[in-house]
From TrEMBL:
It comes from Phoxinus phoxinus (Eurasian minnow). Residues 59-277 form the VWA7 N-terminal domain. This is VWA7 N-terminal domain-containing protein. It comes from the Eukaryota. Keywords: Signal. The keyword tRNA-binding does not apply. Residues 1-16 form the signal peptide.
Amino acid sequence: MRSAFLLLALLIGVHTFYIKEKQNSKNHQDITRIAILRATAKVCGSAEGFEKPNPLNTETLASSCQKDAFANNFDAGIKIISYYNQQTDTDHPFSAKHHFHSEAFLDGKLLIIKGLEDITTYMKNLNFEDARKTLGQILHTLQDFYSHSNWIEMGNTEPCTALINLEENIPNPADEKTQTCESDTTNTKSGAKIKDTILQDKILTSGYYGKSKKKGKCSHGGTLDFTTGFGRSWDGINKDGSDSSHGSLHNQAVDVAIAASVQLLEKIWKSNDEPTFYRLMGLDQDKPKGNKKTIFSFFNSKSNV
């Protein structure tokens, strides 16, 4: 029964940037692929004579990086990282820290910071399989911040760098007593209404997801989010797709999630070196290994940016 519930949740994209393709929306795989291509182009750009290709895809970038022979490996590396990204929904569907639900900002940040530390350790030990797995997992969590919090509603167009830097404090998170969303609002087709004072004072919040929430807090929203109350699945703040509660902001959330993912990848590059970064991405003679056939059957396209 539980497995059937999880499958349904994943197929309809209940509480995260969608996994399956959905019209007019970008999913975690899209965001991850675009970010890896852009970050890798920056790494290659440090070499003299590099010209960023247009369109930007695994084949054109491998060629511009003078690594033509490794284009298929590069594509495989991205697919593996993306696979473990979407697996976060299967492995941790109701974990607040893995999705930045329920104002779990510090726990989510520490998950990302620990992941960054582990990736560097794995890379130094040439354990690229676990490094790719961990990278996919923390990219998912990072990307969800922009869809599940009110970062975009507050007018931010740049990433929250505190999520990947231990020394930075998360800016102005709501405490457990602060009411963040209006209650008993009518369905205006625009989702839950965040309190004006929350937006004016730049107080950070995120939607609650699951069985219940504290009075006055925002809900995530969606078919299987019971915190909204019966018949009020629209009453949330997520931006997972264009048809979500705050779907009008989906594209803005995607853009900032991509930029944040690029920043995280650049941090990994600068904490290591170019050859090991290329190898992590799969832009190397060693073909990335995946221990599940579904990694490659699930993703069957080479998209351009």
